[in-house]
Specification:
Elements (H helix, E strand, L loop, with lengths): L2 H7 L2 E3 L3 E4 L4 E6 L7 E7 L1 H7 L4 E3 L1 E7 L5 E6 L6 E6 L5 E7 L5 E7 L2 E6 L4 E5 L17
Antiparallel strand pairs: 1-5, 2-3, 2-9, 3-4, 6-7, 7-8, 8-9, 10-11, 11-12
Length: 149
């Protein structure tokens, strides 16, 4: 079992702006209102090594919004342990993790809109993150998202 799956079983994510896939691959991310998706996907890192240096550096997550995709699973967004944290995720139909993105300074995500394969998650502080639900690393074209807070 991968580290991220182990954490997800307890509804926890590492406290790091990062994208995690169930297969164990992780990438750093950064909020960026100047790009169409609202986030930049940066370089990969080893989650096991990161947790080895500080295993307690995790946040409990709790959902505030969900969108049922039927047999394709579920989109989920919400908050972390601290008021500034937020997360977005895609789960399988049986609620297993496909991918999750955690942000330390986004505030909770409380709205989801879906158009085809593109989901836009909106936070309580006005951040909008648009991702391809099959692979959130896929670049999004179009006008840049804006923080409205």
């Amino acid at each position: 079992m991968t580290e991220i799956k182990r954490l997800w079983e307890d509804f926890q994510l590492p406290i790091r702006d990062a994208l995690h896939f169930a297969d164990g691959h992780s990438c750093d991310v950064a909020l960026d209102s100047d790009v169409p998706s609202g986030l930049m996907v940066l370089g990969p890192f080893g989650l096991a090594e990161t947790l080895e240096s500080d295993p307690s550096w995790v946040s409990s997550v709790d959902g505030l919004t969900a969108m049922d995709l039927g047999s394709r699973g579920l989109l989920w967004g919400g908050e972390g342990s601290y008021g500034s944290e937020g997360f977005i995720a895609r789960l399988t139909a049986d609620r297993a993790l496909v991918w999750a993105i955690f942000f330390m300074e986004s505030n909770p995500f409380d709205r989801i809109q879906l158009s085809g394969n593109l989901a836009t998650f909106s936070s309580t502080s006005g951040f909008e993150i648009t991702v391809d639900i099959d692979d959130p690393r896929t670049p999004i074209s179009g006008p840049a998202s804006n923080q409205t807070a």
